[in-house]
Amino acid sequence: MKKYSVGCLIFLSVLAKGQIVSVPESDLHASERLLQDFISYDSLYVKKRSEAAIKAKILAKKVFELEAKGYNTSCVHQILYEAGSLLYSSADFALINKRLNELEAAISNPEAQTSIGVKDSADDSYGRCYNEWFLKVVASYNQLEKTAGDNPAPHPLPRFLDRINTPEKLENYLTSISVSDIRKTGVDNDREYNEMHATLLEMIIKGSPQNYTVDSTFKKSLLNMLFNKLRNPVTGWWGESYIRNGHIEFVDNLSTTFHTISYLKGKVPDMDKVIATLFVVKNVPYPVGWLWKNEYWNHNNMDVVTLFKYGWHQVNDQQQNEMSYEIDKMLQWCLTVSLQPDGSFKAIPEDSSIEEAQYYGISFLARIGYFDKSQRFWTNKEFPESVTIKEKLISYVKQHKNTGGSGGDYYKGALEALGFNDSK
């Protein structure tokens, strides 16, 4: 049985909307049940996945090395990300190994890599080194955001969203990917659902990155899905559902919940319930809990502190003290373990690129107000060393911004988080 900190035990008995919030069984055993689902689909799943994962790890190291040397690795990073996503979400090892072989070939000839910023004339999408449609949608959003300009004219939804461009199509699509039947299909839809959930919030609800003209019924349909069909009413979180033994189990997801609340700017009911759940699932393996392989990770830390910030005024003093305690622990880890002498952050394969590792480390620090006292919602502490660290971070990003493994978008976001005007 897992051991929870004293602080977490406080939240095991928190009353939210008349219900006691505790770790749902489906969250507590999410990882084991997911593995059993895949084994039920393919009895050799563990062996096949282990072999593919070894190769993926070796190739990922080579991709990061090329990025560190200054090569244009945006295309190989797209292949790597897709192969990695498939490793977590699919038992189709013929496809996984095909993508890994394509990655290996691309790595062997880095000078021949082409730009990912080329539009596909068939549907106006970007992400030419992806095969999966949903990843092309995400890449297209990022590219449009990069080129939108300061005062864009109104635009209709782009053609790459044609398959979901009505309320009926959208609802059918989200319903189909919000539930996985791995024992039947060999596919976990969680990654696709999370990525599309976030991107659709940006494009349809916020009208970003361009001023998309969307029928009001379309927005209402998406919001209705989010709050009345796709949300866990017990925990207040969002995530994926799984068909098991003739019934459906909901598994909460930290990343999906972060995206929803962040993009809606915290205008979400039951934030007290969201925060109570956030504490009780802390030590549950990701994608439910905070830790990656029992260790902090700047990406998850950024998600957690963002939820803390939006929920700060929805909880009592004791709970705020617990938040402050946890943020301070994350900060000390970030500065003493993750941050490196050259101004970079220690990257792991799950960061997808050195560029993204840099973005998440900087974003974590920026969101807790480490550089800006006015954003320091959780403490009255002063951080005099932050000035020197900020300069070091800016210097590192400026030196590497043209060699970003994700095309430079994350480096741009990192500089913005640091309050640095790159046009100077």
Distance between the termini: 55 Å
Structural class, by secondary structure, is mainly alpha
Low-confidence runs (pLDDT<50, min 5 residues)?
A: 1-20
**In order across it, which strands form the biggest sheet?**
3-4-5
| Major β-sheet profile | 3 strands, mixed
Gyration radius over CA: 21 Å
Describe this structure in words.
The chain has 424 residues and is mostly helical. The chain has a domain at 1-17 and 270-424. It has 18 helices and five strands. It has helices at residues 6-12, 25-28, 30-41, 45-68, 74-89, 93-107, 133-147, 167-177, 182-185, 190-205, 216-228, 254-263, 271-280, 298-311, 317-338, 354-367, 386-400, 409-417; strands at 15-16, 19-20, 179-180, 239-244, 247-252. The strands form two sheets. A three-stranded mixed sheet has the order 3-4-5. Strands 1-2 form a two-stranded antiparallel ribbon. Helix 4 runs parallel beside helix 6, helix 7 (133-147) packs parallel to helix 10 and helix 13 packs antiparallel against helix 14 (298-311). The radius of gyration is 21 Å and the shape is globular. Residues 1-20 have low confidence and may be disordered.
